């Protein structure tokens, strides 16, 4: 079974959670230089000649960084004053979006969990007793093969999720700590996903775009050497329409859309991909005051364990 990860290059300081949270591969977006040693050639002495000092040149005016909101962006919500109806406002102490530098987990109100780290994905559910949690027997970790998962830990209510887990014959290792994401304070609805979403600047040999209607139905396509040319369709449905919680269900089906077999679709075409989704916020600039753009993050899999994850920016 294969893991597919789609995204573009992310801002380093906050999007670490979104990029990983989006299940995406994290890549560098810049470069560096270096210096070297050596032997300097000797310079013969030159007679000293008195010269008039060169007049000082005024320094070029520096351009102050732009701290204004970028057109089309929105301010970051606040966990201390969450938007009405959001997960942070009305959800229980354990549900929501959790993220760290390399991991992201979506925890449902019923304890369903789907998470991604830099190696594989985890699917199943947790049993919650107060602020303690443990994996239920239906939980499995997917990397090459599916392996049963055991483990447990604690929540700090609407702040962190942490613990240990083990799968296969591996020794227990840390699960988290994952931080309760700011996006839990964002109030959303079915209308929030209407429109065009895409990752056209993906650097990972895979691109995906969808257009969602008012009922949550979408059509779209994929391209790139890793995923091939697929025509895709499906639905993205608000998980609890009576609330404004930031959690959706995502279903995607694919068919081959290649011409003469060139760049044939590499997604599973015999069964749908299913899983959770949420709206994440991507920095519009280097400062919080520049605002944030919305993206749809989804993490889905087929019944035989093929997984797909993407972070799709809202398009004009």
Features:
18 strands; nine-stranded antiparallel β-sheet; 2 domains; mainly beta; 316 residues
Break the fold down into its secondary structure elements and pairings.
Blueprint: E1 3-6, H1 15-21, H2 87-90, E2 96-99, E3 104-107, E4 112-116, E5 121-129, E6 132-135, E7 140-143, E8 145-156, E9 160-167, E10 173-180, E11 195-198, E12 207-212, E13 217-223, E14 230-238, E15 248-256, E16 273-283, E17 292-301, E18 307-314
Parallel strand pairs: 1-18
Antiparallel strand pairs: 2-3, 2-10, 3-4, 4-5, 5-6, 5-7, 6-8, 7-8, 8-9, 9-10, 11-12, 11-18, 12-13, 13-14, 14-15, 15-16, 16-17, 17-18
Describe this structure in a few short sentences.
This protein is mainly β. The chain is built from 2 helices and 18 strands.
Give your account of this protein's structure.
The protein is mainly β and 316 residues long. The protein folds into two domains: 87-183; 187-314. Helices cover 3% and strands 40% of the residues. It contains two helices and 18 strands. It has helices at residues 15-21, 87-90, and strands at residues 3-6, 96-99, 104-107, 112-116, 121-129, 132-135, 140-143, 145-156, 160-167, 173-180, 195-198, 207-212, 217-223, 230-238, 248-256, 273-283, 292-301, 307-314. The strands form two sheets. Strands 2, 3, 4, 5, 6, 7, 8, 9 and 10 form a nine-stranded antiparallel beta sheet that branches. The model is unreliable at 5-51 (pLDDT under 50).
